[in-house]
Amino acid sequence: MIVCVAVVGHQNNPLYLQSFTEADDALKLHHIVHCSLDVIEERVNNPKKSGPTLNETFLGLLYPTENYKVYGYLTNSKVKFILVTTDLDVRDADVRNFFRWFHSAYVDAVSNPFHLPGKKITSKTFASRISTLVKSFGSTAPA
Amino acid sequence: MMDPMRSLLGRVLLEEITPVVMVLSTPLAEEACRKNGLNFVEMLLPFSVFNKIDVPVRTASDQPYRLQMFKLRLVYASDIRQQDYKVAENHLKQLVSDAANAALSDLQSELPQLETILSETELNFSPSWIQTFNKELRKSVSFSEHEAFDHPVACLFVVSSNDAQPINRFVDLFNTDQLPSLLNDGVMDPKILKQYLLLHENHDGTMDRATGILAEMKSTFGSIDCRLLCINSSDGGDGELKDNPWLNVKAHLSASHEIGSFLNIDDLIEIKEFMQELSSKHIIPYMEQKIRFLNQQVSATRKGFRNQIKNLWWRKGKEDAPETTSGQMYTFSSMESQIRVLGDYAFILRDYELALSNYRLLSTDYKLDKAWKRYAGVQEMMGLAYFMLDQSRKDSETCMETAFNTYLKLVPSAQRNATRCGLWWAEILKARGQYKEAAGIYFRISSEEPPLHAAVMLEQASYSYLFSRPTMLRKYGFHLILAGNRYYVSDQRPHALRTYRNALLVYGGIPWNFILDHVHYNIGRWYAFVGVFDVSVKHMLEILACSHQSATTQDLFLGNFFETVENMGKIFEVNKLQLPVVNMSSIQVIYEDHRTYASFADLNVNENLWKSLEEEMVPLASTIKSNWLESQSRLSLKKYDDSHVCVVGEAIKLDIEFRNPLQIPISVFSLSLICDICEKSKETKIDGGTSSFGFNDIEELKEAPSCRSRIGDVSNLVLSEFDLVLGGGEAKRIQLDATPKIEGVLKVLGVRWKLSELVVGYHYFEPNTKMKHKKGKRVARNSSGGILNFIVIKGLPKLEGCIHNLPGTTFAGDFRLLRMELRNQSEYSVKNMRMAISHPRFLSPGNLEDFNMDFPCYLEKQKFSKSMEAPANAQKFKNLLFYFPNDVTIEGGATFYWPLWFHASFSGKISLYLSVYYEIESCSSDMIYRTLRMHYDLEVLPSLDLSIHIAPCPSKLQEFLMRMDIMNRTSTESFSMQQLSCVGDELGISRLPANETISPLKVLHAGQALSCFFKLKDCSKSFEYETGLAFHGKDEKLDAQGNGKVLIDVSRSPFLEFHQQERYHQGKTAEGGISNIDFILISELHDSSSTGLHPSILSFHACHCSITNEIPLWWLMEGPRVMSHDFSVSFCEIDLELTICNCLNAEVSIRIITNDFMPETKLSDYLISDSNTNQGGWHNVSLANDIKEISNVQGVQSEKLSSSSSQSISPFIWCAASSTSVKMQPSSTAKVPLRICIFSPGTFDLSSYELHWNVQSSSPSDKGRPGDDAMRSSSGMSQGHPFYLTVMQSH
Q1: Is the pTM of this model over 0.90?
Q2: What is the ipTM of this complex?
Q3: Residue B1036: inside a domain
Q4: Full residue range of the structural domain in which residue A24 is found
């Protein structure tokens, strides 16, 4: 189950953070997402020699905490998408797909002429799209 | 092999994995030591470390090597056991708590900069007690049964020389019941090296007894193992030891009893020598020996292929044995234990290769035996050995990982071992610079440990992140927060506070509000807990305006804040308190100097608008200065230029917006301004010292308002106070007043409010904030920045005013009488009143008598209406300046009314501005005049559209046909027409047909249009002879029913003025030339009950109606129509007159050309040369010859006639000049006499003449209006009108 998705701007400012848990653990998830920025930074600054890292947006598993797995995705405009999940065996392809849909939802949201770049995403459409994405995570394709 | 001293771990290992010497001492021996404030072990402690022992060592191999650093661990026998868990726990807790006190004192200091931290090394940065904590944590698992390096190598028996029967005492000490359980249980070899020490106190007496006993000991226990140690040679008193070695070792010992006071330098040397000998002559050789012995054994039984097979087979057999039996399975004599001892001894003596090979051997055995704890222990040692050898990083890590994981599987029994192993592991990683991995290890340890330990581990993890490359600051912060949380859970708030504070370094200023709020909130809470309330409140303030949090969280934060402030116990003043948020850009300052306002809405009017309105009414500022005759007091105004002026007793209003950022409602009390007032006497030198004055203000602004001493006299200044409740997210505009009561200088500095009884917020207006200032022009130059300084001057009268019954919405044309009320609340009277009106089309001041009349009846047409004189030419059409009569003064406390006529002249949204100027009677003040500004907005709805079309009457020169089109533009209202008046004396109006009643005219319903026709008659003097026609007047009553209504005199006062205005304004937009024909239509709202509007009379003005025609002139031929003449006598001569009117506003030259033949059709071309066609209009054959005779006056004409002589000849000829030129002035009339000769009786059409006209566009006024001329051609030709003349033969 996905517990949290987040969009972080290129100055590491939170643009969107939504948790999908019942419990009141927003603070914890904030911390986890915030921490994962360290890992993203590390990944970006020391790219692995192997593999086609150029233009690769998917960062893969950032780090496993005791209960969560954190995945990251970095757009070319240095906006980061972060996914926190409790599933222990997640297929990489699923995550990749998820991020791809997430990215397109984000692009649509920021293409809104009323959206202020660098400000929090308040679009309700975006939120609902993300929540359907999250719900359908793991299945083949989102609705 | 690396130098172990280079890394922290190496040093730690050299210190911690050292031979243990078990100490057994008698009470008397202990007592002797206690005189120095030490026990025996403590006494020897400083001397158990040898930095340069330089002993040659030879272990299993033949190659000897030298040991440099060496350490002995002296432990009482009673302490050689695994520590009780609880005790260990308490011990650790105490350690942390001790450090907490240090942390507390640290909390007062400023936080270092992040950069300086990053440049530090880890050892310097992380608190030193953490290393101690680690050490103690590791110690708590020492003396375990599965490891051998904690097993005592030697045993030291200590007996005092004062003991009775010392030899027996030595024997007694080694009683099995006193020995530690490890030895008794058979885990450890009880046959260990024994050393016997006789402790002698020198001041107790002679050495004789001691030497005697020593001799006895030597004979009993062997001469090598016995020694005598003399202590307490000094007789106490002052400490003569220069550098007390215990001071640095045992710093935490109580200093009350002076340490080592009975020991002199000789004693120290002796102790040192004893220890040196003990280690180098006894312990190390003993260990060497044991290693060699054990190594031989191991080689014999385990090395070699045969042994291995055997061992394997043997172990296989035990496979079914339960795993839990590991405890008792291996005694000291078992092979495995022996190998372990061999390995550990080798490790202690730093023969890591030997140790490693044995550990390796052992680990496979234990693994096969499933003795997991032992297996893990061996793996752990292997890892350390690998590290010390510095050969294979990978190997050491895998060993540590195996050990750690194996330990973890055995939780809880081996949990602490896992921790120790983890600590080693982390240190190994750190020693290699793998900080990030080390942090991970710390984190793993923390999840297994109780909260307090976990906290320390997490803190170490955070430091590891901080010092990892690249620095992982966010993880550093996160782990600090986690650590702080654990500290808090385990009741170590100072530590929690410390970690959070450090975390703030990372989190400070990041946009992650939830995290930041959490940190600030907890820091605030914990500061409050440790009693540092001011800092606590400071942090609490950071989170007050947390609009992003949920309502409950906001409530919690706010509640905590109040609680903290309450605990602080004093009024807490906060600069820029965020509850509520002051919208600085919303500030509007409203004050009245010589400009006063009738209502609040008037303030929003642009100042320039007022200025232009008052331009002529108000004396110019420059005249005040330039004229030396002006009184001194006025001159004094000049120096106040930089400040604003306000009046004693009149409030300065500050309009400011407060917004509640929270979702929960907050209540704010005692909202008021912060002001300073200085009496006039102090400020006499103000013009010289304004700048320094300003600087003081800046200084003062740093203080809290309560610190400001100058607010002393409450009677000098009255400040309004507001209480308000702001709902969640609500913003309110508040108007705050400050009313000065004395003359002087008033400074408005800021606002303050109370959030609770104890929390006072204040907000100074900062110089750089752009203030939207109502009195814009002088603000920017204020010497003290944006601080609002006001010169308070003496009390002045102030008029208040309003206009009664001015409608908000009305119909165009509405005409009514309004009442302006002016109240003078002061005790002085005012005089010299003037009034400026922005829209004289809408408002016109009346006369006082107007009130006494009954409107509209008084406007009825009087029989003897005296003609009103035209208003003065000076009247302005843009702004109307009205002078009240000179005798008008308003006494103090009086109320004054003045009539105003209102006429809604056009539709739309109209803002009416009025400004009343008045001077102060007793002119002793700085200000001589004031103005009262009033402003009204009204909406005028369209009602009736009036358009008038006048055409000249073709038959009469003085009469015109007029068509009036009225359209009702409203959607609901009906209007009834009352009267149509023609303004001026020149024209009269009558209905067409004259006596018919026009019934639909009475009421014009919504949306309907109506046209009606009238006849206009010029009744000016020049046409006096025409008055024979029935003509009634210039007003025409449209209401045919005539139900008692009377005609209204439009030439009376209000109509007259409004009409002037209308004329002026419509004249500007009129298309045609200016003409004097104006009409006023008066109508009534038919059914006024349907709406709330009650205009009684509506008047519409149509001005500058011109007589429309295609050509600029019209003319009339006058003359007899029927004549009788005796043609037998002579031909008939008839005089005619052509009256030509020029209705153009330009000079026109006219040429009248008479033709004796008639062109049949209208010529397409107006040129004269083409006009002679061969077709005559008149077929009556007449005498062609006579034409020649008569009309030969002009050559041109004769030529023409000759050319036309062949054509048909008209029966009459024009006499006199056939072509007459007339130059006509604009709007003038000219008469041209004509004569005709008729030769035979008949009826003739005398239309055979042409008027050629040419507009002389020479006058500049015409050039300015090309549009008018473009409508008409500049020149042209018109045919004559038909004029039939019948001439009869008279007999």
Answers
A1: no
A2: 0.89
A3: yes
A4: 2-135
